[in-house]
Amino acid sequence: MSTGSRQHCAQMPAKRGYGEGSIHKRADGRWSGVIDLGWKDGKRRRKYVYGVTRAQVVDKVKDVQKAREAGPIPTKGQTVAQWYATYLEKVATPKVRPSTLANYRREYDKHIGPNLGRLRLEKLEPVHLADLYARKQREGLSVASVRLLHANIRRCLNVAMKWGLITRNVALVVDPPSRVDHEVDPFTVDEARRFLAAIRGHRMEARWIVGLSLGLRQGEALGLWWDDFDLEAGTVQVRRQLERPRVKGAKPTFGPLKTARSRRKLNLPSPVLAAIRAHDERQYDEQQDLGEDACADARLVFATTIGTPIDARNDNREFKAILKAAGLRDIRLHDLRHTAASLLVAQKVPMRVVMEVLGHSQIGLSMNTYSQVAEPVLQAVADAVTSALWDEPGTEA
Q: pTM of this prediction?
């Protein structure tokens, strides 16, 4: 092959794969793709997408074609309200849990729609989002809720950009309010013992023992089924969580755990195993007494007096009532989880093991959360190194 032929071949566009649409490299170095949407009102309709690399454009073309199979492709010129409705129907509904979808709809109806819904999608600017976040904080919305709102908008606009409806995602250049990290405030060992004394004989004694000793999140504890326990082996598997959509009138549902790491198998300390066995007998007696009046879900380990899932708010109220009756300081229910972790760290359990027990996705999360608690342990390690390397044999530090 001649040099000229090689140069000619080098300039030819790469052969596109099946279903990729027409993709080519532009003179400015970027890539573009065009998808044929067919005829409408006597006109040929096409959608254009752009990217820095060919792979980016291939992904965008596939996204558009996938959406096309589900129904008509939205075009430019629509409002935020119109696009958000499409996003929820064609993108969010097939991918997220019903409770998450309900939360998305609630956030739009209450916050996004009234403030941004009438704007043209391509006219949305960073200042619109910044003003929205500031206004919501002035109205009393928490920092955590505003950050969730921002994440919702960012995901929605990211899909709009992939589909070629906008050329940039303005949410990427707007900073949501900074997260306020709650200080870890676990029980001391003495307080934990007083808590155990306060719940002795309580109907939900086992629920609080599980929270204090195993460090389960609230939803994980309330989502336990009897099939998760192996009482002979003395183990429990954390497989799901009970969640309540933030929508008025919505009932609690069982859903997947926070992360893949949250799925874990734990060994039960003997007092915890004994509490679970006692709870099993108590629950059986309750159901026998209720008879036909019970609407019990036999799978549930922790349930209401009529056998239904426990609402998280009622669970929290019960916890606060126990603290008050016992004269214990007021802490968050989630601090029971921190107490369990702190006790493990204080007993010099390796941080990697603490991470596995808690179901953290990254060891850095465990280290950052419990760094203060771990300080005495880390100092003990430093002292051990000093003793091994620098202390004279036969002398005491």
A: 0.61
